Fold Aminopeptidase.
Amino acid sequence: MNTFIKRTQVLYRVISINFVDLSFTPSISSSSSSSSSAYFLLNNKTKRFQSTHIKLKMTGRNTQEAKPLFQRLPQSIVPTHYDLTIQPYLDTFKFNGDVNIHIKVKEPTNNIVLYAAELEVDNAKLKSTSNNEQGGKIDYDKEGERITVNFDKKLETGDYQLALKFAGEISSRMRGFYRNKYTAPDGNEVRHGASTQFEPADCRRAFPCWDEPNFKATFDITLITPKNLRAISNMPIKAENEYANDKEWKITKFDRTPVMSTYLVAYVVGEYDYIETKDSNGVSMKVYTPLEKKEHGQFALDTAAKVLPFYAEYFNIKYPIAKADQIAISDFAMGAMENWGLITYRETALLIDPKFSSMDTRQRVAIVVAHELAHQWFGNLVTMDWWTDLWLNEGFATWIEYLAVDKCYPEFDIWTQFVADTFARFLIPDALKSSHPIEVPIGHPAEIDEIFDAISYSKGSSVIRMLHDYIGDDAFRKGLHNYLTEYSYKNTVTENLWSHLAKASNKPVNEVMSSWTLQMGYPLLTVTEEQTNKNRVVKIKQQRFIADGSADDENLQWKIPITVFTKSNAKKIAQQTLMDKPEITMTLENVSENDWFKLNYNSIGLYRVKYESQTLARLNEPIANKTLSPQDRLMVQNDVAALCNAGHQSFVDYLKLLPSYTDEDNFTVWKSIASNMGDLSSLLEYTDYFNKFKQYRLNLFSSIQNKLGWDAKPNEDPLSAMLRPMILGIVGKSGDQNVIDEAKKRFERHIAGDLIDPDIRGAVYVIVSRYGDESTQEALRKLYVAADMTEEKVRLLRSMGQSIKPEIIENTLKFVFEGDNVRMQDSISGLVGCTASRDGRDLVWKFLQKNWTTLVERFGEKSNFLIAFVEYGLSDFADEKTASEIKEFFETMNTPIVARPVKKVLETIHMRSEVLKRDSKAIEEYLKRHQQQ
Ligand SMILES: [Zn+2]
């Protein structure tokens, strides 16, 4: 699965660029129904967690509540096949269904327990192989989302078929079998379709089933639908006939699926156009789009046709089924979902308008398509045994999506972007005390939603990248192939991959990896140096890096693959070692007194580095002359910023370092700088010298802005097309009058029909929204209503709240949340826009307090959007008073899913307020001196 909004961290918050939605990863939070220490004991991997020498710390879990223990379904009855028929009624939003489940009873029993939620189930009948039939009586366990079918006569071991009839509602909450709203091509008439989203545990809302990933079975799916609608499912259509009971309806039967988990079942009913092709191995591929927009599917189709054969070759396993379809669903909570053979996407993650989509949307689509296609093997063919190993599924897909995009679109230089977007991204939440290990023991399914977060995706993929580098590509591919082959159509656990990789590489994979997957956080390496004649003696100490600079009480330690390189051979690793103690010493030979050295070649190791001031100062030169790779250039300043936040250094050091980047021209390096500057901006907004800081920011970004200008150069690379709007946005928000005037001019021409280049359009919207008045807002709202492309709508939504006028921000919040102007899944983009200013943050906080109960009702108490509202809406404060208000408010609200996000927010605010207390005076003095020069 690919979750939804990418915040490009702070970039977005203050400087707010063309950020692309998707890949939002709500973070872990504690759940009301969790009593995790007890759940642990029921998990079949308990032993692993107990025997490991690593101390597991499960902070934030709610251990006091005495709810009944969660137990997975027993293995004494297993399903092998489902015959499933569904008939949806889109006028009443109801559906009927019947299912005939082939089961094996392995121990004699009087009842059968399976999952069903929000369904009326009746007419239970059990047939044995000898055709003996008996009826069953159904008991509901609403809380446990299960039914028990009780029989008078004891069932002996053997094969049976369990038939059930059921009915349910096509819901509005974007999970289970739910409705999709769209307008007819005429732009007026509102129509509905329906589609499924089952991961992690919502298949049970669509039909009764063994809804756990390790009960794999085959599925014969039949849909009964009105004739004018398309009926689509995982597999190709086997037969389509008129429905005997009503000739306005048809009955569509699909081929049998492979053996697979319930969370991967999918069916969609609605009006769609499509385009199609075959990949180089003959796999049939379609991209389904809204009516009359089939050309918007071309880019995704082309990408998929390149990526699918790439994976087949990389894994050395052919794509397992006959088709690989993709479809854009109008109402979609996540970014995309890897249902086998029918991948569902939100529109902005799949559709590219050849004329009006921006370059970063293209890049994003390529990435999401590559992510979902990787799951067709890693996840679908070989599936985690239980959600505890979800991180491996998501971390792996997130790593290999970059490998595939790099292969198909080298012009995106995507591995460099990995460091800024994925690697540097988890380093922030994982430094909080409220973080969690990537391998989290999951008991109750309610805990599953908690782990679709930056730790699972971003840290998971960074760990895989480090491992890939540690054992090398040949061993990695070989081990991976063996693993995927051995566990095809089966379930597995993380260690099984490690042991195949260990065998293929002859390296202690399990030992090295467990320190990264079973404990939270990551190390800070403190480096001290001494010159002895021609050699540099380097001492390295490890300790957990904690965001606010506090000491690690638990004294966590890691096994760290370390690399060092030096000036004399800047493109090669000089020394490498596996650091497996608290402290090591390395001697770098033939390094003269003025030569620089640096740890972590290309920023592959999962650690931050703290150098002594002279060691850091020597790096100015290879940064300025770009001897260091972009990955390394960006991480030097990223580490310094984090060390400043933690109080290891003063932020003045960061401001002094940045001038080395004045001539920087790499998109990704600027993205990382912009992100850190955004953070700092949102903090210094609470001081009375903020204007001086804006001047500093303007100076920093001016030369690159002059270089890039407003308009694309002929044959420009795609990275410049992405850098330009980012820089324009920053410079505009820093008050550059020329840029502001030009943006206003272009906006006026835009409204008159001379359209702005889609690459810079988002930046223009933000600038005019910020400096404009009510009439500008009116114009933005009109554009929003008129836009028929979701990408454009989201661009507009993000800009609206970025005004500096409080009444406009208030109106934006109303526009986003009241009435039905904005789809539920897009409201977060509107909200985040409003947090771009100090006043806006206050208004968002007031809004959330006033409307929290309504939001919980509308989105559902388990919705990931609630997490996003809290994390994105409230993290940017910098005072303890607001922190305690937030704490008190959520203590009275009792919304368990945001318990951990609230902790994260409080920790972040505390850290920010400490930075202000500690460094504010010195920053002010530095800025004064700096600007007098
Ligand atoms: Zn995924």
User: Anything to note?
Assistant: The first strand starts at residue 77 and ends at 89.
